[in-house]
Amino acid sequence: MGFLDGFIGNRQAPLIGLDISSSSVKLVELSQVASGGYVVERFASESLDKGWIADGQIEKFEEVVEAVRRVVAKSGTRTKRVALAMPQSSVITKKILLPAGLSEEELELQVEAEANQYIPFSLDEVSLDFCVIGPSVAQPGDVEVLIAASRKDRVQDRQGLAEAVGLKPVVLDIESHASRLAMTRIVSALPDQGRDALVALFEIGAEITSLKVLRDEDLLYDRDQAFGGSQLTMMVSRQYGFSFEEAEQKKLSNSLPEDYDTTLLAPFVDSLAQEIGRALQYFFTSTPHHKVHYVMLGGGTAALPGLRERVTELTGFTSMVVNPFEGMEMGSAVRENKLRREAPAYLTACGLAMRRFLA
Question: How confident is the model at residue 359 (pLDDT cuts 50, 70, 90)?
């Protein structure tokens, strides 16, 4: 599903996934071998200064355009077709039931009529899309349809950003949908292909950590919390007198003073693990569930040394750091060690790149 899907001709044509978050731009390009396995052809990232993107809104358009231009150049890709994503907070989604057997035209009319009830804007102001999920279990004879709507100015910002650097936007997805698509490979590699397993996915971003609890194809729970990796950057900035941008660069390049590990990193990892434990407890108290089978850690902050072990210790649940590229072949342009180090940050970008291969 995506707001621009209608513009796609040959979906198997080369496509790059471009994830634009509040702290960075990340790019992934995949291809497929004859057996259906994926090959990582390109990947690259570029940091964004604090405030360039706030609450999913692009505040410094020209600066972000230049960052996208740099990430495309750095990756070496020649592909122009791009899949982008909107933040969850910018998109209204609603599942509805409609009679099975409607034509595409009838579906569109019904969706527009239903959308009027759920969208607090005039339909003239929004980009609207929908996809048929499948037959309804509860109501035989009906199909489940997912409606998605976002304000046109938000959609046009993302399109304009891509077009300003000579890219052709062909898919505009939702960030959480893209990361869940990448997760399907990770879950299917679990024992018994992950069937019936409750998987708690924590995506730890710069400002926000989202918890999604997944079981098979279903999203059982979805909640954001205001903590993330930028809190550690702020601590580094204050402790050593660096600017926020300097602190972020030194954190990423592991060039901080010797006392950093004990003075800042260990307490932050402990605090983050406790936040993850609290988020799980909130899930247990607000749902019928009282355990999860796996805790998965994604996002750039997930790879912090000792975090996985501390989460396992505090929660008692098996924890792992996600690698969306696990089991994929590496193209000749890919630096494998760098990719493995940074893999958790590429979950959404990888899911966007996988859109190329969806029927």
Answer: low
